[in-house]
Specification:
This protein is mostly helical and about 140 residues long. The protein folds into two domains: about 90 residues; about 40 residues. Helix content is about 70%, strand content about 0%. Helix 1 runs parallel beside helix 4 and helix 6 packs across helix 7. The longest helix has 24 residues. The radius of gyration is 17 Å and the shape is flat.
Length: about 140
């Protein structure tokens, strides 16, 4: 019974992520937008929130269960993929620049953080770059 719940959670997760990506693909930017979130379809936001909750459930349930299951790693992977999806919203919507620079500039910030183990005082998006450091 427990494996059936895990499989159901994974199927719903992948269906939700597929729905989110399809909605994003079908809603390209129509010029200048003041807020990317305002023009992102509501169902995309709902799918991303639901899949994040599913990932958190997988991690919490299997991290604190009495059995020695490695399914929490799958939940952590789900959360990382959701983070990637949220950070990719500008690209998926057709923006050319993300925040104040292009993707190569953000990658340079990540490389600097990996080399120095410090956050540069001029880095105005440290959380984004820390997330990318965790992935790399």
């Amino acid at each position: 019974m427990k494996d059936r719940g895990i499989k159901l959670c994974l199927v719903l997760y992948f269906l939700g992520m597929a729905g989110a990506f399809l909605l994003l693909r079908n809603s390209p930017t129509q010029g200048y937008e003041l807020s990317i979130y305002k023009h992102t379809p509501l169902m995309t936001t709902i799918f991303l929130i639901a899949t994040t909750v599913a990932g958190i459930w997988m991690v919490a349930y299997h991290a604190f269960s009495s059995s020695r299951s490695k399914w929490w790693v799958v939940g952590y992977g789900m959360l990382l993929f959701n983070m990637f999806a949220v950070l990719s919203l500008p690209y998926l919507r057709g923006y050319y620049y993300y925040m104040h620079a292009d993707p190569v500039a953000h990658w340079a910030w990540v490389q600097e953080m990996l080399a120095t183990h410090h956050i540069h005082p001029g880095n105005i998006y440290p959380v984004l770059h820390l997330d990318l450091v965790n992935i790399s």
